[in-house]
Amino acid sequence: MDIHPSRSDMARRRTVPLAGDMTQNPILVVGGTGITGRRVAARLTAAGHPVRVASRSAARPFDWHDPDTWSAALAGVRRLYLVPLDGTRLTGPFLRRAAEAGVERVVLLSGRGVDDPDYLPPGHPAGIVHVTGEEALRASGLTWTVIRPSWFSQNFSEGYLGDWVRSGDLRIPGGEASAAFVDAEDIAAVAVAALTEDGHQGAVYELSGPASLTLAEAMAEISLASGKQVRYTPLTVDEFVTELVADGWNADEAREFGLALTPLARGLDARLSDGVRRALGREPRSFAAFAADAAAAGAWRA
């Protein structure tokens, strides 16, 4: 049985700092230039925590494909926000190196559908990275928290679908089902809480927004917020692949991308989750709030 903490429990939990030196040891953010990592790093910095963003251009260069760079990035780190490298099995070796370096706490960005063998086709890279990543984390001996978000709302503004939204026509094999899009600001807030507070150890937080929307409804929200008309055109996977290949994509990569979108069409992202409320003691941000903020920031200007 799943027992959720009360709001008073949440209030007490947020006042308990993580044991150890909060001022000297940097928190390492792997994936710190991405949609969630950038927000995690910004929130940690704003709260006064020392942050080290792992990237090839950092003062301590970090390259997923060069394990010789891992130790320097991990030096002195006790807490870690980890966004795995898509399509790889590198999470396990990296976590072993992290444990050897003295890391104590890890917050792992995983994904919805890890516990559903039918979510993605067998062997799909997006599924492999999350399944193997969670398995490696549980076997690492480290203190851990897992975050499993639904589709990011920001995929439509700054992610891989942003250009298509800006074109005015989102053409993907997403079907007509709804999805509980989650704001990346909520993902980052949960990650920061799990990194800096006690009470989140061993938790798996599945995150969603407060309501499910079809892609047509989501585009209508963006149209309303931005003043720019955006429509959604549902395609089959084959039609999607054909269009991407015509635009210069590799056929295999185009098909992998198309198949990664099919859980939307099958309604597997429609359910609402209580992870934001469990972790933060508040309701998640709405898609309309995301759209208003993104429009104000000029996300969909040509």
Describe the structure.
- By secondary structure, the chain is an alpha/beta fold.
- 40% of the residues lie in helices and 13% in strands.
- The protein contains 13 helices and ten strands.
- It has helices at 7-14, 35-46, 70-74, 91-101, 125-139, 162-167, 184-196, 215-226, 237-246, 251-260, 262-265, 275-280, 287-296, and strands spanning 27-30, 51-54, 79-82, 105-109, 143-149, 169-172, 178-179, 204-207, 213-214, 231-234.
- A six-stranded parallel sheet has the order 2-1-3-4-5-8, sandwiched between helices. The protein has a two-stranded parallel ribbon with strand order 6-10. Strands 7-9 form a two-stranded antiparallel ribbon.
- Strand 4, helix 5 (125-139) and strand 5 form a beta-alpha-beta unit.
- The longest helix has 15 residues, at 125-139.
- It is globular, with a radius of gyration of 19 Å.
- The N and C termini lie far apart (50 Å).
- Residues 1-23 have low confidence and may be disordered.
Helical amount among residues, as a percent range?
40-55%
Count of distinct strands: 10
Sheet bearing the most strands, described? Answer: 6 strands, parallel
The share of residues in extended strands comes to: 5-15%
SS summary, helix count:
13
Global geometry: globular
